[in-house]
Amino acid sequence: MTNFASDNTTGVAPAILAAIQAANDGAAMPYGNDAITARMAALFADFFEAEVAVFPVVTGTAANALALAAVTPPYGAVYCHENAHIHVDECAGPEFYTGGAKLLALPGAHGKLHATALEAALRARAATRRQPHYAQPAAVSVTQASEAGTVYGIHELREIAEVARAYGLRLHMDGSRLANALVELDCAPADLTWRAGVDILSFGATKNGAMAAEAVVFFDPALAAETGYRRKRGGHLLSKMRFVAAQWEAYLTDDLWRRNAAHANRMAARLAAGFEAMAGAEILYPVEANEVFVALPEAAAARMERAGFVFYRWGGADGAGGADGAGARATARLVTSFDSDAADVDALLAAARGT
Predict the structure, then answer these.
(1) Which domain does 267 fall in, by range?
(2) Per-residue confidence (pLDDT) for residue 167, from 0 to 100
């Protein structure tokens, strides 16, 4: 695979394709009233070791927006990192689904929201609570893994949750790459979600081998009381829900989620190790999931492109360099997937080195 632009560029895991094909055999009741969706719900409860309310959808944007709408009124505010997907990449979807709530973005090293910064921001706005002139803080959202490819540790989440609780806010997790974080930390799903204080999870499988399978997971089912209506009104109650449920059933069976994420993480670590050994290259963030951000000579980035490798330039080159362009640098984001090939990783690194 020469495309390292995103884990959305890859295909579907064979086990998930087989599950979709099996679900195509015969008729089934629509809108989630089928046996596969019932089995899926039980699997989620086992996976998280808790009673949960689950709402399958087909996009991460819908999952995030529906989750935040459940706990944020139109006059509310959601605190997130300044590079969070909900803030930068979802075309005001959360604002639309909440009916106009405000996203308040905070800076943070390595793409992560930090409890101290959150507490400072909430303390600074404490005087505006219950005043009609201001958006009222309602929720906090964290991205796992972050947009920088870094992972929130359990203690970091607990600290954020403690601050949120102190100010009466709910904690949402955008878990589009939760599987990669779980593999990195080698912990139970419950430990990185509800036991750490997460109230609502947007759980993603699409980036880790599914065709189109996301879910809103409520760890307090009482919070989900209106989400069924919101999902329908938003156009995400699928008539043939069994085809999404079948993907989740395959994903959560026999640790497919873990195997896929572990492979993607290993390939990212392989990429990072190669760049670390390359003169003139600098890894910008800790590589803790399946994304690598690297600053490298523009000539190296150009060689990768000429060799047919696809990746995103993050901000482009930092200058023209000397008279012949020497000295110019570029920043690249490279993302590995469940089916990334080690030979392709090595070939990309060889192209970057010019060997």
Answers:
(1) 257-353
(2) 96
